[in-house]
């Protein structure tokens, strides 16, 4: 199955049991909810997936299990976030062997690579995998920006096909379209800029709160692409306080708490992360409760 790099693609959370083991039963509940809502890909092993705390075998088990659950309905995409080029190539090869159909790739972790080093890093992985690659461009959180000039070099590789656009500069969508047309697909990577990004021409949305609210997320995307902007905007305005839970240092805990509220997740996180407590837990819970109380009735977006 080829990756089309469009539509809503959830960056799914990793479900754990109270004993800190993978909770594959609840994981399947959530993946099935995503499929039912109409997502067009599943992304594993990102920040929301707590990848930095996962053992290598756990990552591989998640890929294999997701491939089994989706059963060819949508592509499974594995995130690659490694400290070394060799490690990134090995991670890409393992993901491909386990059935992933695409990669999302961050620049080198921990080391603040130069532009040249970053280009070579992505290039070496591209040379050593047949999987299509989406570059995750998030200079706010990861301190390395993949500039348009750098993409000029990277697009020599046919399997570098998309960018998860998380610069927080909405005009960058237009810059990319002006420079590369459809050669570089754009997926919004910031929940609170998603509708704006889609209206500027983004092809898709790598979403976070979709983990708890899959139907609402896909409805916004489908309505916007169908030109039904007022309907999309009404849902988006309701959604925004919840979407803001994604642009927070405790985004994993926030979204898992929302998943519990909608019945498709558990709250367990892996240390050093801990479940929310005190005033911050109350604040987040109030946002979720208010959102559920005013949850909008959705139109028949699946037929669009």
UniProtKB/TrEMBL annotation:
Keyword list, A-Z = Lyase
Among Pfam families, the record links this protein to:
DHDPS
Q: Tell me which domain of life the UniProt entry assigns to the organism this sequence originates from.
A: Bacteria
* Listed InterPro entries: Aldolase_TIM, DapA-like
Q: Which PANTHER family match?
A: N-ACETYLNEURAMINATE LYASE
Family recorded in the similarity comment:
Belongs to the DapA family.
Identification of the protein by name? Dihydrodipicolinate synthase family protein
Which source organism does the UniProt entry give? Flavobacterium jumunjinense
